[in-house]
DNA sequence: TACTTCTTGCAAATCATTTGCAAATAGATT
DNA sequence: AATCTATTTGCAAATGATTTGCAAGAAGTA
């Protein structure tokens, strides 16, 4: 939990008129340190041991979701994943790639996803998410040896 | 459960070397009749009342998933949704649109989703899913009156 | 500091899904 | 058609993830 992350966490809460409580700051720091979407369970494990209750983790993630500070990512299984929205545009999240071999999920920050064409008339799109599945670079190399 | 659907259901099971049991035929007919992805619970409700156990519904959906006869759709909540794969290409599902107002999900069979550009080197994409959120045509009209 | 309101921890509840197991059945074999 | 054997099913109980009720504890404000 670096000082820089703590600053950023406090700022996010301030901007949204939310109280700066210890659990919230810790949870935001965990999310700031993560390099891919986390489950509630994973956030719980990464927070300073025993310092935050699991119910509080979930309640906080839901609160941050409501304020659009975090987004849900929809990966392969039925478990919700959460990540900070700061790498997303208001109308779209960056795509996620999940490897069928090693199971890891990678955030594709630099990928370009063109708009969906030929939508039915009258539909207003406010948000878009793209989910890719396949074999990651590491696993492809591994299979050649 | 039309005769045509029953035929198709039997055919799907045959093609995959699966036994044609009454629960499987019923479940496939439910999926053939559905116009958007269904949860296990919804499949259970739509099957002839009391004729199939809920555990069997889930076991069957998982079996059909393994044989790529159905796909999972990832919608807003943490509940898995299932739909027949016959409207999908092997490497991509048609997009789904979920209305933030009425909550309905629409299958966008005719939409065109261009490929993702600028992927990191060495990644092999085997499957893609696109999820849209916004306001559906009906709800937009409703809000103008 | 005192106050008011929001937030937390804890325990229990809920929801979706999965599992163990004995009875039932599909499809192959006689 | 009756028999056989591996699969499949129903039922009840277990599981895993998430949510809720409530009294005690903090945050922000006066
Ligand atoms: Mn991401
Ligand atoms: Mn669909
Ligand atoms: Zn991999
Ligand atoms: Zn709508």
Question: Which pair of chains has the greatest number of interface residues, and how are they split between the two chains?
Answer: A-B, 42 and 42 residues
Q: Structural class, from helix and strand content of chain A?
A: alpha+beta
> Quick one: how many beta strands of chain A?
5
End-to-end separation of chain A? 39 Å
CATH architecture annotation of the largest domain in chain A: Orthogonal Bundle
- What name does CATH use for the topology of the largest domain in chain A? Arc Repressor Mutant, subunit A
Report the helical percentage of chain A.
25-40%
Largest sheet strand order of chain A? 4-3-5
Provide a count of the helices of chain A.
Answer: 5
* Rg over C-alpha atoms of chain A, rounded to the nearest angstrom: 17 Å
CATH H-level superfamily title of the largest domain in chain A: Winged helix-like DNA-binding domain superfamily/Winged helix DNA-binding domain
Detailed description of the structure:
The first copy, chain A, has two domains: 3-86, Arc Repressor Mutant, subunit A; 96-144, no CATH class. Chain A has helices at 3-15, 22-33, 40-46, 54-66, 137-144, and strands spanning 70-73, 81-84, 96-99, 105-107, 124-135. Chain A is globular and about 45 Å long. In chain A, α1 crosses α2. Chain A has five helices and five strands; from the N terminus they run ααααβββββα. In chain A, the strands form two sheets. In chain A, strands 4-3-5 form a three-stranded mixed sheet. A two-stranded antiparallel sheet of chain A has the order 1-2. In chain A, β3 and β4 (105-107) form a beta hairpin. The longest helix of chain A is centred in the first third of the chain and has 13 residues, at 3-15. Chain A is an alpha+beta fold. At the A-B interface, β5 and α5 of A face β5 and α5 of B. The complex binds manganese (II) ion (2 copies) and zinc ion (ZN) (2 copies). One zinc ion is lined by residues 99, 101-102, 104, 136, 138-139 of chain A. Chain A binds a DNA duplex (30 and 30 nucleotides) through α2 and α4.
């Amino acid at each position: 939990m670096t000082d820089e992350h703590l600053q950023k966490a406090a700022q996010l809460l301030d901007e949204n008129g939310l109280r700066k409580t210890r659990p919230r700051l810790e949870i935001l720091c965990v999310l700031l340190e993560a390099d891919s979407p986390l489950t509630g369970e994973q956030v719980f494990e990464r927070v300073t041991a025993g310092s935050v209750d699991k119910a509080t983790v979930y309640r906080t993630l839901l609160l941050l979701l409501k304020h659009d500070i975090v987004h849900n990512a929809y990966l392969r299984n039925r478990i919700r994943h959460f990540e900070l929205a700061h790498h997303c545009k208001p109308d779209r999240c960056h795509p996620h790639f999940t490897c069928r071999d090693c199971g890891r999920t990678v955030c594709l920050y630099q990928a370009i996803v063109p708009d969906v064409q030929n939508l039915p008339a009258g539909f207003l799109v406010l948000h878009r998410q793209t989910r890719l599945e396949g074999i990651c670079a590491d696993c492809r190399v591994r299979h050649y040896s």
